[in-house]
Amino acid sequence: MSLHLGDTAPDFTQDSSEGPIHFHQWLGDSWGVLFSHPADFTPVCTTELGLTAKNREKFAARNVKVIALSVDPVESHTRWIKDINETQGVTVNFPILADADRKVSGLYDLIHPNASTTATVRSLFVIDPAKKIRLTITYPASTGRNFDEILRVIDSLQLTEYHSVATPGNWKDGEDVVIVPSLQDPEILAKKFPRGFRVVKPYLRYTPQPNR
Ligand code: BEZ
Q: Does residue 94 carry a pLDDT above 90?
């Protein structure tokens, strides 16, 4: 099944390294990141899961729960987690779905047969508290993800969700943002942006990052 932005993230129940996960219930009111790994005991994935553990507080500060997926059983995940902890200097502190029957891989279209018939691609989904998919990125198995970029996109999504602003190209936390074009009412603009905004063109209005 091919998923698009704005679709409801498919719900499922699946085993994990922390016991069975009922996905929507597990997400609760949080944002979520679900990301897939080709297989256990692979080099790139080992580093990515280490980075996920290292960034735990940054995800938590953004009200984001993180869950990984690999198409191996729990027993394999348990042995792999020991290696991740040892080699990456972390304690894995989030569940890894054991998708041996590929139930979740099917729901989220994670097997791309022309890339590999057995391994999942390196896809990542950001899911909002309404369970809507807000971002998808898919990398080949051999390219590790950039966790600074994942956090940056979550910041951007949350700025749009909570402050009616969008983020320009190459935007970084702390830099000016742009007001979404749909917002035109002068009273609302004055209320939402008390520090003012700079009109370059009617559709290009810069304002200081509202939550800074
Ligand atoms: C991996 O570490 O997951 C990986 C590395 C090279 C090719 C495919 C996967």
A: yes
| Residue nearest (by alpha carbon) to ligand 1 atom 7 | 142
| Gap from CA of 45 to ligand 1 centroid (Å) | 7
158 belongs to a structural domain: no
Q: Is the pLDDT of residue 86 over 90?
A: yes
- Encoding tokens for residue 117? 């018939």
User: Quick one: 81 and 178 in the same domain?
Assistant: no
Residues 126 and 178 in one domain: no
CA distance 85 to 6: 35
Provide the residue range defining the domain that includes 176: 163-207
Ligand 1 centre distance from Cα of residue 29 (Å): 33
Q: What is the pLDDT of residues 31-66, one digit of tens each?
A: 999 999 999 999 999 999 999 999 999 999 999 999
Indicate the DSSP class of residue 129.
T
Instruction: Specify the pTM.
Output: 0.95
Tell me which residue has tokens 């402050």.
Answer: 163
Ligand 1, atom 6: nearest CA belongs to which residue? Answer: 142
Confirm whether 150 is domain-assigned.
no
CA of 166 to the centre of ligand 1 (A): 34
Say how many Å lie between the first and final Cα of the chain, rounded. 40
Q: Tell me if 45 CB under 6 Å of ligand 1.
A: yes
Instruction: Judge whether residue 1 has pLDDT over 70.
Output: no
Q: 186 and 134: one domain?
A: no
